[in-house]
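SEQUENCE-TO-STRUCTURE ENTRY
===========================

Subject: a protein chain together with a token-level encoding of how that chain folds.

Sequence line: the amino acid chain in single-letter code, read from start to end.

Question of interest: how does this chain fold, as expressed in backbone structure tokens?
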Amino acid sequence: MAKPVAPAVAGTGAAAADKKGKKKTFKKKERKHVPHGIAHIQASFNNTIVTIADQAGNVLAWKSSGSLGFRGSRKGTPFAAQQAAQNAASMARDHGVRSVEVRVSGPGSGRESAIRALAAAGIEVRNIKDATPIPHNGCRPPKRRRV
């Protein structure tokens, strides 16, 4: 035979005692130890995205000018790119990144300032490679416009 359970009345100490005794356990955030990484800087005219990854390509940290609160035409400025690179570098240093290989892509104005900010943040810049995609007469242009 099952025992009848008394309904819990609001204000009783039984429910409060359960909450005090139970501690919340948080899973500790996993920190990888990666001494050497690759920094991808994607600088367009409208925004600059700085991504720092390990050698295998797994992203450790990233920041963009837009994610920092810059809006409109200010996202494409060298100052916004510098701030994004500084924040990404400080996040990557938590993972143990000490040196990076920089790959810059795009025609934006934040290319150089982002690289300088990475170096100023205490991360050694080993080499810089321009990875801007250049078409080698790839796509056929659209047909001529008739007015």
Notes: The radius of gyration is 26 Å. The CA atoms of residues 141 and 147 lie 18 Å apart.
